[in-house]
Amino acid sequence: MTRSERRVFLLACGLRLVLVLFVRAGHPAGAPGAAATFAIWGGDTFSYLDPIENLLGHGTFAQDLTRLDTYAGRMPGYGLVYGALRLLLAPAAAADGLVLLQVGLGLLALYCLARLAQRATRQQQAFHWTALLFALNAFTPAFDVRLLTESFATSALIIGLYTLVKGRERNAVALFMLAGIWLGWSVFLRPFLAPLLVLVTAASVVAMYRRVSWRRAGALGAGLLLPFLVADGAWVARNWLWYQHPVPLQSNSWAGYRTAPAIAEASQFVGVIGDEPTWWQPTSDLAWLYQSGPARRNPFAHQPRKLAPPAYTADSLNQVRLLLGVAQDSLRPAPQRQWAAGRARQALARYALAYQRLRPWQARVVVPGLLAYRLTLAHPADYLYRQPFAELSRPQQLLKIGVHLEYLAVVTLGLLGLVFSSWRRGWATGLVKLVPIYLLVLLCGILHQVEFRYFAVAYPFIVVSAVGLLLGIGKQLRVRASKTTHSD
Q1: pLDDT band at residue 58 using 50, 70 and 90 as cut-offs
Q2: Which of 71, 81, 92, 113 satisfies CB 3.0 to 4.6 Å to 258 for a cystine?
Q3: Which residues touch 257 (CB under 8 Å, ≥6 apart)?
Q4: CB 348 within 8 A of CB 315
């Protein structure tokens, strides 16, 4: 590390820590009924920590002890760290310990990201710009103080890919295995990264074959994948003993929770037509459809883009809503509730297929575009303050607007950089571009499940893409200026 790089890195670390403290100051501490802690509890925090508490208290790794027959729950990537801390500390102190580890690992990831940017752009100043730009964002620090997997998953992915690039440079199996440990852990934290690990492994074997024999390339690829296969093999074996069927990642795509099949079908339907499957947001289509929010008028009556007549209309969806209401009514006989849930599920499955068949342009172009917008650009400053915008003071409002604009600028430049970047082709360049492209295709084009925090794992690579684009533009401008000077 040069002297200028050291100064910039230390400055970036200081800025990052200040932003972490600033974000933390805008939120209440602890969980309802729990001792106050520095850590911020999210809506899903219990699903990561409760299995460890049940393991320590009852000898069973499960979030819900009443659902041991069919519910594997979350993968234990986050619980592993929390469990190690719980062996030494009380719950509140262990939660704060998680936050300290998240912040510390985030600083290491910042360094690795800046080095990765140097290799991807092949420009030395990329280290400085990437370190400062990533340190100045208020998006990822919001997860450093939250008891959710985004912080660890993002750091593990950055460190793993940087280690992989180093391993390729040195042709070292040990570095490939170390990269595999980091990347495998990222999958245990965010299971939707599993296909990315497979893609990276396949690409690594092909890239290494250009320099070494197939046997050597295969050995390096095996070293990369082996740590995850060993850990996941243990997870599959544990789940087979409990449930008598394989659960390689999670019990289902709904965050590993055991949910009513009808809400899973409704979630899939609203994703297909281009809405976020967020039943906890009272204004969402899913909240109206599943009656999890306040009563309001049929939202589909004024959204013809989401309808596919004659297969289904707004009235058809209202009938499904009534059936889902019957399915949730605990006062009704169980057979009646099961019949209503089955009818609703069948209808929603037909409607989703009909939408894709009758409205192909909407389903294949417009909907993925809308979902991509919601994933990347729709909520940039939501994690800054807990209060609504109208309840903030004027300085807080101005700051939130500034954070919003800074985020939009970086992401817009980063997305443009994925397409129009003038970087030279290279292994590191391909890895940087692969992560956000993979995430957009998987979540927006295949799963139709977007939640803003899922974008956290891709955001650092968007920063690198933005830096690469800006440095490329700057280089072209200097070349043109030089030609103009010489011609004069």
Answers
A1: confident
A2: 71
A3: 47, 71, 73, 251
A4: no
Residue 8 has pLDDT above 60, yes or no: yes
Cα(455)–Cα(462) distance, rounded to whole angstroms?
10
Confidence grade of residue 33 (pLDDT, cut at 50, 70, 90): very low
Asked if the model's pLDDT at residue 30 lies above 60, the reply is no
How much of the chain, in percent, has pLDDT values that exceed 70? 91
In this predicted structure, the answer to whether residue 229 has a pLDDT above a threshold of 80 is yes
SS3 130: helix
Is pTM, for the whole model, over 0.85? Answer: yes
Look-up of token digits 């290799």: 119
Write out the two tokens for 327.
């399915």
Per residue in 255-283, pLDDT (tens digit) is 556 667 788 888 889 999 998 877 777 78
Report how far residue 66's alpha carbon sits from residue 204's, in angstroms, rounded to the nearest whole number. 44
- pLDDT per residue as tens digits for the range 337-385: 999 999 999 999 999 999 999 999 999 999 999 999 989 987 766 677 7
How many whole angstroms separate alpha carbon 79 and alpha carbon 58? Answer: 16
Phi then psi dihedrals of residue 308, to 5 deg: -140, 70
Q: Three-state DSSP class for 40?
A: strand
Nearest to 347 by CA among 369, 385, 326, 321: 321
Higher pLDDT, 328 or 5: 5
Sign of CA dihedral 48, 51, 54, 55: negative
CA atoms of 118 and 112, how far apart (whole Å): 10
User: Apex CA 459: angle with CA 102 and CA 101, to 5°?
Assistant: 5
Partners of 308 in beta bridges: 312
Contact 442, 375 (CB under 8 A): no
Contacts 24+ apart (CB under 8 A), 323-330: 323/347, 324/262, 324/266, 324/289, 324/290, 324/291, 325/291, 327/260, 327/262, 328/260, 328/290, 328/291
CA distance 28 to 458: 27
Which residues does 410 contact at the CB level (< 8 Å), separation at least 6? 133, 137, 462, 463, 466
User: 3-25 vs 91-121: helix axis angle to the nearest 10?
Assistant: 140
Contacts of 137 by beta carbon, 8 Å cutoff, 6+ apart: 19, 406, 407, 410, 459, 463
Q: Which residues pair with 312 in a beta bridge?
A: 308
Long-range interactions of 404-408: CB distance < 8 A, separation 24+: 404/380, 406/136, 406/137, 407/137, 407/138, 407/139, 407/380, 407/381, 408/377, 408/380
- Which pLDDT tens digit goes with each residue over 296-311? 788 898 889 999 999 9
- Give residue 487's pLDDT: 61
Cα–Cα nearest to 427, from 279, 231, 211, 264: 211
